[in-house]
Amino acid sequence: MDADFNRPVCKMKKLWATVAERVTAKLRELGDDVTVKAHECDSKWRNMMSTYRKNAERAKRRGAQIVHWEFFQAMHDVLGKAADDSDEQRNGQLSKKLATVMASKKFTPILPTPPLPPTPSPSPAPSRPPQDVLQLYLELQERKMDLWTQQKDLEERKIEAINNLARAISSLAAERSSHSVTGDSG
Fold first, then answer.
1. Residue predicted with more confidence, 13 or 126
2. Residue 130: is its pLDDT beyond 70?
3. What is the pLDDT of residues 40-54, one digit of tens each?
4. Same domain, yes or no, for 80 and 140?
5. Contacting residues for 72 by C-beta, under 8 A, at least 6 apart
6. Which end of the chain is flanked by fewer CB atoms within 10 Å, N or C?
7. Considering only CA atoms, which of 38, 31, 9 is closest in space to residue 145?
């Protein structure tokens, strides 16, 4: 859908909704009963592009062997090519390579993490490979984006409720003034 996303005027929400429908359908084909939302796809793509750009820059400075992100090579094979590659070739290559890499991964929706019970004595934190830390960071950022979206929706509903209340008050005031005018003349 590169061509659609790169048009000067496009409805991003509709495009991401289409992506979400396709991903959901693919997951159901694979046996996962998961519904993916458009904003999740948008957020995941932005995170992956950000991670790719950071790793590509790192690879330029320090060499490709320093990059340990599992999707880097698949994305770099497509996004790192010269601009003269046609959109169709890039899309086909990215789809095939990412599908191959991601086929071995199990999709799990991001759910709120339950709070950990307090530990009686501090124990040294287990050391994690940098990739795990990065993945945790990306998941945290995704959760933050989700919470921000939920907060934004809530604020929009509050504004709508306030506007409805203001209209109702105005209507009652207009109704009361028309009753008082007709009551005074009668």
1. 13
2. no
3. 989 998 998 899 999
4. no
5. 52, 55, 56, 59
6. C
7. 38
Does residue 24 lie in a domain region? yes
Cβ partners under 8 Å of residue 177, min gap 6: none
Name which of 74, 124, 123 is nearest 100 in CA terms: 74
- Counting the structural domains of the chain, the total is 2
Distance CA 170, CA 18 (A): 42
Rounded distance, CA 95 to CA 89, Å?
A: 10
Residue type present at position 185? S
pLDDT tens digits, one per residue of 16-39:
999 999 999 999 998 888 889 999
One-letter amino acid for residue 149 of the chain: T
Q: What is the mean pLDDT of the chain?
A: 77
| Residues 1 and 93 reside in one and the same domain | yes
Q: What is the dihedral of CA 172, 177, 180, 185, to 10 degrees?
A: -140
| Amino acid found at 96 | K
Residues 85 and 13 in one domain: yes
Residue 19: burial class (beta carbons within 10 Å; 0-12, 13-18, 19+):
buried
**38-62 and 130-185 are packed helices; what angle lies between their axes, rounded to 10 degrees?**
140
